[in-house]
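Researcher: I've been going back and forth with a colleague about how DEBR0S4_13454g1_1 might be arranged in three dimensions. Neither of us has a model we trust, so I'd like an independent prediction. The organism is Dekkera bruxellensis, in case that matters for your notes. Sequence below.
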Amino acid sequence: MTQDWNRFLSVEAKNRHPSVMKTVGGPDIISFGCGMPHSDCFPLKGLSIKYTTPDSNFKKTAIGSNEDDANSKEGASEIYQMCQYMSASGTTYFKKWTHEHIEEFHKPAFRDWDCLIQSGATLSFDQILRMICDPEIDTILAEELTYPCFLESCKPLRLKVFGVKMDADGVDVNDLDMILTNWYEDERTKKYRKPKFYYCMPFGQNPSGITMTIQRKKDLLQICQKHDILVVEDDPYFHLQLDPSAKNVPSLLKFDTDGRVLRIDSFSKMMMPGMRISVVTANNFFVKKLTMMNELSIHSAAAPSQLIVYMLMQEWRQQGFRQWIEYIQANYRRRRDIILDAFDKYLPKSLCSWNKPSSGMFLWIKLRLDKFPKLDRSEDDSEWALELEDLVYDQALKEKIYLTKGHWFMIDDMVMAGFRATYASGEYEDLYEGSRRLGIAIRHVHENLYEK
Ligand SMILES: Cc1ncc(COP(=O)(O)O)c(C=O)c1O
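Model: Here is an independent structure prediction for DEBR0S4_13454g1_1. You can compare it with whatever you and your colleague have in mind.
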Protein backbone atom coordinates (compact mmCIF):
# COMPACT_ATOMS: atom_id res chain seq x y z
CA MET A 1 0.00 0.00 0.00
CA THR A 2 1.43 3.42 -0.88
CA GLN A 3 1.65 5.74 2.07
CA ASP A 4 1.44 9.49 2.26
CA TRP A 5 4.75 10.32 3.93
CA ASN A 6 4.02 14.06 4.00
CA ARG A 7 2.88 13.67 7.60
CA PHE A 8 6.53 13.29 8.66
CA LEU A 9 7.89 16.40 6.99
CA SER A 10 9.03 19.56 8.75
CA VAL A 11 7.64 22.89 7.58
CA GLU A 12 11.05 23.53 5.99
CA ALA A 13 10.90 20.29 3.99
CA LYS A 14 7.29 20.91 2.93
CA ASN A 15 8.47 24.17 1.42
CA ARG A 16 11.27 22.57 -0.55
CA HIS A 17 10.73 22.04 -4.25
CA PRO A 18 13.03 20.77 -6.98
CA SER A 19 15.40 23.47 -8.17
CA VAL A 20 14.34 25.12 -11.45
CA MET A 21 18.02 25.15 -12.48
CA LYS A 22 17.92 21.71 -14.07
CA THR A 23 20.01 20.50 -16.97
CA VAL A 24 17.94 19.51 -19.96
CA GLY A 25 20.10 17.31 -22.17
CA GLY A 26 19.81 15.04 -25.17
CA PRO A 27 21.50 14.42 -28.52
CA ASP A 28 19.60 17.18 -30.38
CA ILE A 29 19.58 19.79 -27.65
CA ILE A 30 21.72 22.91 -27.98
CA SER A 31 21.90 24.26 -24.46
CA PHE A 32 21.72 27.98 -23.85
CA GLY A 33 20.59 27.03 -20.36
CA CYS A 34 22.78 26.15 -17.39
CA GLY A 35 26.21 27.62 -16.68
CA MET A 36 28.15 24.39 -17.15
CA PRO A 37 31.82 24.94 -18.00
CA HIS A 38 32.98 23.59 -21.38
CA SER A 39 34.98 20.36 -21.13
CA ASP A 40 37.90 21.99 -23.05
CA CYS A 41 38.26 24.14 -19.96
CA PHE A 42 38.67 21.21 -17.57
CA PRO A 43 42.36 20.76 -16.80
CA LEU A 44 41.96 17.18 -15.51
CA LYS A 45 41.77 14.50 -18.17
CA GLY A 46 42.25 11.37 -16.15
CA LEU A 47 42.80 9.90 -12.72
CA SER A 48 45.17 7.22 -11.44
CA ILE A 49 44.97 5.53 -8.08
CA LYS A 50 47.49 3.41 -6.22
CA TYR A 51 45.69 0.80 -4.16
CA THR A 52 46.34 -2.37 -2.22
CA THR A 53 45.39 -5.63 -3.91
CA PRO A 54 43.11 -8.42 -2.60
CA ASP A 55 45.32 -11.23 -3.94
CA SER A 56 48.23 -10.00 -1.78
CA ASN A 57 45.90 -9.76 1.22
CA PHE A 58 46.18 -5.98 0.86
CA LYS A 59 49.96 -5.90 1.30
CA LYS A 60 51.09 -5.12 -2.28
CA THR A 61 49.98 -2.20 -4.40
CA ALA A 62 48.85 -1.74 -7.99
CA ILE A 63 47.90 1.22 -10.13
CA GLY A 64 44.52 1.75 -11.71
CA SER A 65 43.88 4.46 -14.29
CA ASN A 66 40.82 6.09 -15.74
CA GLU A 67 41.17 8.23 -18.81
CA ASP A 68 37.62 7.79 -19.92
CA ASP A 69 37.42 10.56 -22.57
CA ALA A 70 36.73 13.75 -20.66
CA ASN A 71 35.65 15.48 -23.84
CA SER A 72 33.00 12.95 -24.79
CA LYS A 73 30.11 14.71 -26.52
CA GLU A 74 27.34 13.12 -24.50
CA GLY A 75 29.09 14.14 -21.31
CA ALA A 76 28.53 10.67 -19.92
CA SER A 77 32.14 9.73 -19.31
CA GLU A 78 33.34 9.14 -15.76
CA ILE A 79 36.08 11.77 -15.90
CA TYR A 80 33.70 14.29 -17.46
CA GLN A 81 31.17 13.65 -14.67
CA MET A 82 33.92 14.06 -12.11
CA CYS A 83 34.72 17.52 -13.47
CA GLN A 84 31.21 18.74 -14.27
CA TYR A 85 28.12 19.62 -12.25
CA MET A 86 26.16 16.43 -11.73
CA SER A 87 22.88 15.15 -10.36
CA ALA A 88 22.46 16.18 -6.71
CA SER A 89 22.00 12.50 -5.82
CA GLY A 90 25.40 11.38 -7.17
CA THR A 91 27.24 10.39 -10.34
CA THR A 92 25.42 7.84 -12.50
CA TYR A 93 28.16 5.20 -12.21
CA PHE A 94 28.62 5.43 -8.44
CA LYS A 95 24.88 5.45 -7.84
CA LYS A 96 24.58 2.30 -9.93
CA TRP A 97 27.32 0.62 -7.91
CA THR A 98 25.68 1.78 -4.67
CA HIS A 99 22.29 0.38 -5.67
CA GLU A 100 23.88 -2.99 -6.36
CA HIS A 101 25.77 -2.83 -3.06
CA ILE A 102 22.61 -2.05 -1.05
CA GLU A 103 20.71 -4.77 -2.86
CA GLU A 104 23.48 -7.30 -2.23
CA PHE A 105 24.08 -6.55 1.44
CA HIS A 106 20.73 -5.27 2.72
CA LYS A 107 18.01 -6.56 0.42
CA PRO A 108 15.47 -3.86 1.34
CA ALA A 109 12.07 -5.38 2.00
CA PHE A 110 10.04 -2.53 0.48
CA ARG A 111 9.90 -1.82 -3.23
CA ASP A 112 10.10 1.92 -3.80
CA TRP A 113 13.51 2.45 -2.23
CA ASP A 114 16.24 4.64 -3.58
CA CYS A 115 19.71 5.89 -2.62
CA LEU A 116 21.33 9.26 -2.34
CA ILE A 117 25.10 9.75 -2.24
CA GLN A 118 25.97 12.15 0.56
CA SER A 119 29.05 13.77 2.08
CA GLY A 120 29.33 11.71 5.26
CA ALA A 121 26.90 10.34 7.82
CA THR A 122 27.12 13.50 9.91
CA LEU A 123 25.69 15.60 7.09
CA SER A 124 23.17 12.85 6.34
CA PHE A 125 21.64 12.82 9.82
CA ASP A 126 21.73 16.61 10.02
CA GLN A 127 19.71 16.81 6.79
CA ILE A 128 17.32 14.11 7.97
CA LEU A 129 16.77 16.08 11.19
CA ARG A 130 15.89 19.20 9.20
CA MET A 131 13.69 17.27 6.82
CA ILE A 132 11.58 15.77 9.58
CA CYS A 133 11.74 18.05 12.60
CA ASP A 134 10.44 21.54 13.21
CA PRO A 135 12.90 23.45 15.39
CA GLU A 136 11.86 23.85 19.02
CA ILE A 137 8.67 21.81 18.47
CA ASP A 138 9.68 18.28 17.56
CA THR A 139 11.19 15.58 19.74
CA ILE A 140 13.36 12.55 19.05
CA LEU A 141 13.88 9.18 20.67
CA ALA A 142 17.31 7.57 20.84
CA GLU A 143 19.22 4.95 22.80
CA GLU A 144 19.90 6.31 26.31
CA LEU A 145 23.62 6.40 25.48
CA THR A 146 24.03 7.84 22.04
CA TYR A 147 26.45 9.43 19.58
CA PRO A 148 27.33 12.93 20.88
CA CYS A 149 27.55 14.47 17.40
CA PHE A 150 23.94 13.48 16.84
CA LEU A 151 22.95 15.19 20.08
CA GLU A 152 25.02 18.21 19.09
CA SER A 153 23.18 18.37 15.76
CA CYS A 154 19.85 18.41 17.63
CA LYS A 155 20.93 21.27 19.90
CA PRO A 156 20.99 24.20 17.46
CA LEU A 157 17.56 23.05 16.23
CA ARG A 158 16.39 23.08 19.87
CA LEU A 159 15.06 19.52 19.54
CA LYS A 160 14.51 17.63 22.76
CA VAL A 161 15.88 14.08 22.72
CA PHE A 162 14.43 11.40 25.01
CA GLY A 163 16.46 8.32 25.91
CA VAL A 164 15.22 4.73 25.63
CA LYS A 165 16.72 2.04 27.83
CA MET A 166 19.10 -0.54 26.40
CA ASP A 167 20.25 -4.01 27.35
CA ALA A 168 22.83 -6.42 25.94
CA ASP A 169 20.57 -7.13 22.90
CA GLY A 170 20.03 -3.49 21.97
CA VAL A 171 17.08 -1.20 22.54
CA ASP A 172 14.60 -2.15 25.24
CA VAL A 173 11.50 -2.28 23.06
CA ASN A 174 9.15 -2.46 26.06
CA ASP A 175 10.53 0.83 27.30
CA LEU A 176 10.09 2.32 23.83
CA ASP A 177 6.51 1.07 23.71
CA MET A 178 5.77 2.44 27.20
CA ILE A 179 7.22 5.85 26.40
CA LEU A 180 5.16 6.18 23.24
CA THR A 181 1.97 4.73 24.74
CA ASN A 182 2.08 7.06 27.77
CA TRP A 183 3.43 10.07 25.91
CA TYR A 184 0.56 12.43 26.70
CA GLU A 185 0.12 11.18 30.30
CA ASP A 186 3.71 11.11 31.46
CA GLU A 187 4.84 14.31 33.25
CA ARG A 188 8.21 14.09 31.52
CA THR A 189 6.85 14.00 27.97
CA LYS A 190 3.27 15.30 27.94
CA LYS A 191 4.03 18.90 27.10
CA TYR A 192 6.02 17.89 23.99
CA ARG A 193 4.97 16.77 20.53
CA LYS A 194 5.15 12.99 20.00
CA PRO A 195 8.41 11.97 18.26
CA LYS A 196 8.45 11.30 14.56
CA PHE A 197 11.50 9.07 14.63
CA TYR A 198 13.75 6.80 16.62
CA TYR A 199 17.49 7.20 16.04
CA CYS A 200 19.68 4.14 16.54
CA MET A 201 22.98 2.47 15.72
CA PRO A 202 22.28 -1.24 15.23
CA PHE A 203 25.86 -2.52 14.92
CA GLY A 204 28.66 -1.81 17.39
CA GLN A 205 26.60 0.97 18.95
CA ASN A 206 28.59 4.08 19.68
CA PRO A 207 29.50 4.16 22.61
CA SER A 208 28.35 0.87 24.14
CA GLY A 209 29.59 -1.48 21.40
CA ILE A 210 26.24 -3.34 21.60
CA THR A 211 24.87 -5.00 18.45
CA MET A 212 21.10 -5.32 18.16
CA THR A 213 19.89 -8.90 17.73
CA ILE A 214 17.71 -9.88 14.78
CA GLN A 215 14.73 -10.45 17.07
CA ARG A 216 15.18 -7.01 18.59
CA LYS A 217 15.25 -5.47 15.12
CA LYS A 218 11.97 -7.14 14.25
CA ASP A 219 10.41 -6.08 17.58
CA LEU A 220 11.66 -2.54 17.16
CA LEU A 221 10.06 -2.23 13.74
CA GLN A 222 6.81 -3.62 15.08
CA ILE A 223 6.69 -0.98 17.83
CA CYS A 224 7.57 1.77 15.38
CA GLN A 225 4.82 0.55 13.08
CA LYS A 226 2.33 0.42 15.98
CA HIS A 227 3.09 4.05 16.90
CA ASP A 228 3.69 5.16 13.32
CA ILE A 229 7.17 6.56 13.74
CA LEU A 230 10.20 6.37 11.45
CA VAL A 231 13.55 4.79 12.24
CA VAL A 232 16.87 6.42 11.40
CA GLU A 233 19.44 3.64 11.19
CA ASP A 234 22.87 5.26 11.42
CA ASP A 235 25.15 2.35 10.64
CA PRO A 236 28.81 3.08 9.91
CA TYR A 237 29.87 -0.18 11.62
CA PHE A 238 27.79 -2.62 9.55
CA HIS A 239 30.83 -4.04 7.76
CA LEU A 240 32.74 -4.32 11.02
CA GLN A 241 30.94 -7.45 12.23
CA LEU A 242 33.82 -9.08 14.03
CA ASP A 243 32.70 -12.50 15.15
CA PRO A 244 32.64 -15.14 12.41
CA SER A 245 29.69 -16.80 14.17
CA ALA A 246 27.62 -13.61 13.96
CA LYS A 247 28.63 -12.49 10.49
CA ASN A 248 26.27 -11.09 7.87
CA VAL A 249 23.61 -10.16 10.40
CA PRO A 250 21.12 -8.10 8.40
CA SER A 251 20.35 -4.43 8.95
CA LEU A 252 16.92 -3.05 9.85
CA LEU A 253 16.28 -2.32 6.19
CA LYS A 254 15.91 -6.02 5.50
CA PHE A 255 12.90 -6.33 7.84
CA ASP A 256 11.15 -3.06 7.02
CA THR A 257 8.17 -3.81 4.81
CA ASP A 258 6.66 -0.30 5.18
CA GLY A 259 9.55 1.94 4.07
CA ARG A 260 9.86 3.61 7.47
CA VAL A 261 13.61 3.05 7.86
CA LEU A 262 15.99 5.74 6.68
CA ARG A 263 19.35 4.04 6.56
CA ILE A 264 22.73 5.79 6.58
CA ASP A 265 25.83 3.94 5.37
CA SER A 266 29.23 5.56 5.54
CA PHE A 267 32.57 4.81 3.92
CA SER A 268 34.33 6.39 6.92
CA LYS A 269 34.88 3.29 9.05
CA MET A 270 34.98 0.61 6.38
CA MET A 271 37.37 2.53 4.18
CA MET A 272 38.47 6.18 4.42
CA PRO A 273 36.81 8.99 6.40
CA GLY A 274 38.61 11.59 4.31
CA MET A 275 36.52 10.61 1.29
CA ARG A 276 33.44 12.03 3.02
CA ILE A 277 31.09 9.59 1.32
CA SER A 278 27.87 8.28 2.81
CA VAL A 279 24.72 6.79 1.35
CA VAL A 280 21.16 7.35 2.49
CA THR A 281 18.77 4.57 1.54
CA ALA A 282 15.09 5.20 2.12
CA ASN A 283 11.77 5.23 0.32
CA ASN A 284 12.03 7.49 -2.69
CA PHE A 285 9.72 10.13 -1.17
CA PHE A 286 12.39 10.97 1.43
CA VAL A 287 15.28 10.49 -0.99
CA LYS A 288 13.72 13.08 -3.32
CA LYS A 289 13.37 15.58 -0.46
CA LEU A 290 16.96 15.04 0.64
CA THR A 291 18.12 15.45 -2.95
CA MET A 292 16.35 18.83 -3.03
CA MET A 293 18.26 19.79 0.12
CA ASN A 294 21.52 18.90 -1.63
CA GLU A 295 20.59 21.00 -4.66
CA LEU A 296 20.60 24.13 -2.51
CA SER A 297 23.45 23.33 -0.17
CA ILE A 298 26.41 21.10 -1.10
CA HIS A 299 24.86 20.47 -4.54
CA SER A 300 26.29 16.94 -4.46
CA ALA A 301 28.91 14.85 -2.70
CA ALA A 302 32.35 15.60 -4.18
CA ALA A 303 32.70 13.74 -7.48
CA PRO A 304 36.45 12.96 -7.16
CA SER A 305 35.68 11.02 -3.97
CA GLN A 306 32.91 9.13 -5.71
CA LEU A 307 35.21 8.32 -8.63
CA ILE A 308 38.12 7.20 -6.45
CA VAL A 309 35.92 4.77 -4.51
CA TYR A 310 34.29 3.61 -7.73
CA MET A 311 37.65 3.00 -9.44
CA LEU A 312 38.77 1.00 -6.44
CA MET A 313 35.63 -1.13 -6.70
CA GLN A 314 36.24 -1.65 -10.42
CA GLU A 315 39.77 -2.83 -9.70
CA TRP A 316 38.83 -5.05 -6.78
CA ARG A 317 35.57 -6.32 -8.25
CA GLN A 318 32.85 -7.69 -6.00
CA GLN A 319 35.02 -10.56 -4.78
CA GLY A 320 37.88 -8.20 -3.88
CA PHE A 321 35.52 -5.95 -1.95
CA ARG A 322 34.30 -8.94 0.05
CA GLN A 323 37.93 -9.85 0.74
CA TRP A 324 38.50 -6.26 1.88
CA ILE A 325 35.67 -6.54 4.37
CA GLU A 326 37.12 -9.78 5.70
CA TYR A 327 40.52 -8.13 5.93
CA ILE A 328 39.29 -5.17 8.01
CA GLN A 329 37.16 -7.47 10.14
CA ALA A 330 40.19 -9.63 10.92
CA ASN A 331 42.24 -6.51 11.67
CA TYR A 332 39.75 -5.03 14.13
CA ARG A 333 38.96 -8.46 15.60
CA ARG A 334 42.64 -8.85 16.45
CA ARG A 335 42.74 -5.40 18.07
CA ARG A 336 39.57 -6.10 20.03
CA ASP A 337 40.96 -9.39 21.26
CA ILE A 338 44.22 -7.74 22.29
CA ILE A 339 42.49 -5.00 24.29
CA LEU A 340 40.26 -7.60 25.95
CA ASP A 341 43.33 -9.62 26.88
CA ALA A 342 45.05 -6.47 28.17
CA PHE A 343 41.99 -5.42 30.21
CA ASP A 344 41.84 -8.90 31.67
CA LYS A 345 45.47 -8.59 32.72
CA TYR A 346 45.55 -5.01 33.96
CA LEU A 347 42.13 -3.60 34.90
CA PRO A 348 40.89 -4.21 38.46
CA LYS A 349 37.81 -6.41 38.00
CA SER A 350 36.72 -5.58 41.52
CA LEU A 351 36.35 -1.91 40.52
CA CYS A 352 35.10 -2.01 36.94
CA SER A 353 33.57 -4.18 34.24
CA TRP A 354 33.49 -4.11 30.44
CA ASN A 355 31.81 -5.86 27.52
CA LYS A 356 33.01 -7.84 24.52
CA PRO A 357 31.64 -6.12 21.43
CA SER A 358 30.72 -8.31 18.46
CA SER A 359 30.93 -5.39 16.01
CA GLY A 360 32.42 -1.96 15.63
CA MET A 361 35.30 -0.13 17.25
CA PHE A 362 34.24 0.50 20.83
CA LEU A 363 33.80 -1.09 24.18
CA TRP A 364 32.25 0.30 27.28
CA ILE A 365 33.99 0.34 30.66
CA LYS A 366 31.69 0.70 33.63
CA LEU A 367 32.94 1.69 37.07
CA ARG A 368 31.35 -0.39 39.84
CA LEU A 369 29.51 2.21 41.87
CA ASP A 370 29.03 -0.24 44.75
CA LYS A 371 32.83 -0.12 45.13
CA PHE A 372 32.89 3.67 44.79
CA PRO A 373 30.15 4.68 47.30
CA LYS A 374 28.95 8.28 47.25
CA LEU A 375 30.84 10.75 49.39
CA ASP A 376 28.97 13.33 51.48
CA ARG A 377 30.16 16.18 49.29
CA SER A 378 27.85 15.11 46.42
CA GLU A 379 24.16 15.97 46.46
CA ASP A 380 22.86 12.87 44.75
CA ASP A 381 23.93 9.65 43.06
CA SER A 382 24.03 10.97 39.51
CA GLU A 383 26.10 13.98 40.57
CA TRP A 384 28.47 11.57 42.31
CA ALA A 385 28.72 9.37 39.21
CA LEU A 386 29.67 12.43 37.20
CA GLU A 387 32.31 13.49 39.74
CA LEU A 388 33.76 10.01 39.86
CA GLU A 389 33.98 9.89 36.10
CA ASP A 390 35.88 13.19 36.15
CA LEU A 391 38.29 11.89 38.78
CA VAL A 392 39.17 8.79 36.77
CA TYR A 393 39.30 10.76 33.53
CA ASP A 394 41.75 13.28 35.03
CA GLN A 395 43.88 10.57 36.61
CA ALA A 396 43.99 8.67 33.31
CA LEU A 397 45.14 11.83 31.57
CA LYS A 398 47.94 12.14 34.15
CA GLU A 399 48.92 8.62 33.09
CA LYS A 400 48.72 9.88 29.48
CA ILE A 401 45.61 7.91 28.60
CA TYR A 402 42.74 9.59 26.82
CA LEU A 403 39.26 8.12 27.26
CA THR A 404 35.88 9.47 26.23
CA LYS A 405 33.68 10.23 29.21
CA GLY A 406 30.44 8.32 29.54
CA HIS A 407 28.48 11.48 30.33
CA TRP A 408 29.20 12.86 26.89
CA PHE A 409 26.97 10.11 25.50
CA MET A 410 24.15 10.34 28.04
CA ILE A 411 20.89 11.95 27.04
CA ASP A 412 19.68 12.31 30.63
CA ASP A 413 21.57 12.28 33.91
CA MET A 414 22.19 8.65 34.78
CA VAL A 415 23.50 6.95 37.87
CA MET A 416 26.32 5.45 35.86
CA ALA A 417 30.00 6.20 35.56
CA GLY A 418 31.67 4.81 32.47
CA PHE A 419 33.98 5.37 29.56
CA ARG A 420 34.09 4.53 25.89
CA ALA A 421 37.36 3.01 24.80
CA THR A 422 38.36 2.31 21.22
CA TYR A 423 40.77 -0.34 20.06
CA ALA A 424 40.63 0.91 16.46
CA SER A 425 43.70 3.06 16.17
CA GLY A 426 46.28 2.01 18.79
CA GLU A 427 49.28 -0.16 17.94
CA TYR A 428 49.22 -3.57 19.62
CA GLU A 429 51.82 -2.62 22.24
CA ASP A 430 49.94 0.62 22.97
CA LEU A 431 46.77 -1.33 23.65
CA TYR A 432 48.65 -3.27 26.35
CA GLU A 433 50.54 -0.31 27.75
CA GLY A 434 47.43 1.91 27.75
CA SER A 435 45.45 -0.74 29.61
CA ARG A 436 48.21 -1.08 32.20
CA ARG A 437 48.18 2.66 32.84
CA LEU A 438 44.39 2.78 32.93
CA GLY A 439 44.44 0.06 35.57
CA ILE A 440 46.85 2.17 37.62
CA ALA A 441 44.62 5.26 37.25
CA ILE A 442 41.45 3.46 38.41
CA ARG A 443 43.23 1.91 41.41
CA HIS A 444 44.80 5.24 42.27
CA VAL A 445 41.41 7.01 42.40
CA HIS A 446 39.98 4.28 44.59
CA GLU A 447 42.93 4.37 46.98
CA ASN A 448 42.78 8.14 47.21
CA LEU A 449 39.07 8.17 47.98
CA TYR A 450 38.72 5.27 50.42
CA GLU A 451 42.01 3.79 51.47
CA LYS A 452 43.95 6.80 52.77
C1 LIG B 1 27.27 6.41 14.82
C2 LIG B 1 28.11 7.31 14.00
N1 LIG B 1 27.55 8.04 13.04
C3 LIG B 1 28.28 8.85 12.25
C4 LIG B 1 29.64 8.96 12.41
C5 LIG B 1 30.41 9.88 11.51
O1 LIG B 1 30.42 9.37 10.21
P1 LIG B 1 30.94 10.23 8.97
O2 LIG B 1 32.42 10.26 9.03
O3 LIG B 1 30.43 9.48 7.79
O4 LIG B 1 30.34 11.59 9.07
C6 LIG B 1 30.28 8.21 13.41
C7 LIG B 1 31.72 8.34 13.64
O5 LIG B 1 32.27 8.06 14.68
C8 LIG B 1 29.49 7.37 14.21
O6 LIG B 1 30.03 6.62 15.19
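Researcher: What would you highlight for our discussion?
Model: I'd start with this: The two ends are 69 Å apart (CA to CA). After that, consider the following. The longest helix spans residues 303-346.
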